[in-house]
Amino acid sequence: MGSDKAPESEIQGAILACRTLESDIRVRLVGPEGTLAPALKTALRGARLPIEIVHASEWISMEDKAAQAVRSKRDSSMRVGLKMVREGRAAAFLTAGNTGAAMATAKMVLGSLAGVDRPALATILPTMSGQPSLLLDVGANVDSDPENLVQFAVMGHMYAQNVLGISSPRIGLLSIGEEDTKGNSLTRDTFPLLKALPNLNFIGNVEGRDLFNNRVDVAVCDGFVGNVALKSIEGAAKLFSTLLRESLKSTVTSQVGALLSRRAFSDFKKRLDYSEYGGAPLLGVRGVCIVGHGSSNAKAIMNGIRVAAEFAHAEVNAGIEAALRPQA
Q: Chief subcellular site (predicted)?
C-alpha cells in the first residue's frame, strides 16, 4: 500500500517477480483484503501464482507523520508485514511507502542486531565500471558518532561481500578531501578507528566523485550527508536525462543519430534507472527490510523482491553480528 500508484505497482511487481525470478519466490501482499483481493484477481487473469493476501486494516501514507503513525496505526501493513519477518513467516519485507515510518517500525518490531547501536539505510549507485557501489547511511540517522560510522562500515562490508559479490570491498570515508586530516570533527575522529580495523579493506577518505569512478565499493557517512548526496544524485540524473532527450530532438540530424543509436541510449537509460536496483536495504535490524522509492513501478517492485531474496539467502546479518562481536 506504499507506492504512489499503490496497490497497482505492488501487485504487478509481485506477478512479475513470481514469473521471472527464482522458482522458490512466494509473495504475500499485506494490506486491506477488500482492496487487494479484487485488484489481484483482475491482474492475474485466471493465472495461478504463489501470491497470497495478508489482511491489514490500516496503512501509513506519505502524508502521515512517521513517529505518530507508527504508534497510532497498530494494524498498519508495515507493522503486520514486519511482524511476519520477526515470527519467521516471511524471509524479508519490502515497502515503497513512507521511509521514516518504515525505518521506525523496523527498529521497533525487529530490533537491532547485537553490536549495532543504530541501523543504517544503504543505497546502490551505478559506477563507470558497471560494478555498483554502496553508500550508507543515506537518511536513517541525521546525527552519528564515530562508533556509528565504524558499524556502518562493517555492515556495508558484509552486504557488499555477500550480496554484491565483491570479495574484498574497498571501504572509504566520505569527506571533502583525500588527506587524513581533511573533513569535520566526525570524519577526523572516525578515520583512525576505521584504519585500525584488521579485517576491513579501508582505503581512506574519498570524495563525492569517487562514488562513481570505481575507486571505492562502500562509502560511509552520516545520514545527513548521505541523504543530501543521494537527493543531489537523483536530481542530477534527472537533469542529465532531460537535457540529453531535448538535445536529441533539437535537429533532424540529431533525431536520425538518436534512431541509429537507440540501443546505446537504451543501455544508458537502464544504467541510470532506479528501478533496476529495487530498493535500499536497512542494515543492522534483526531481519531483512528493503525500502523502495515512492515512485516505484512494477519493475522496481520486482527488483525489490529480488534484492530482498538475495539479502535473505546471503545471511548478511549473521556476518554483521560476528564482525561486531567484542573480541575476547
A: cytoplasm
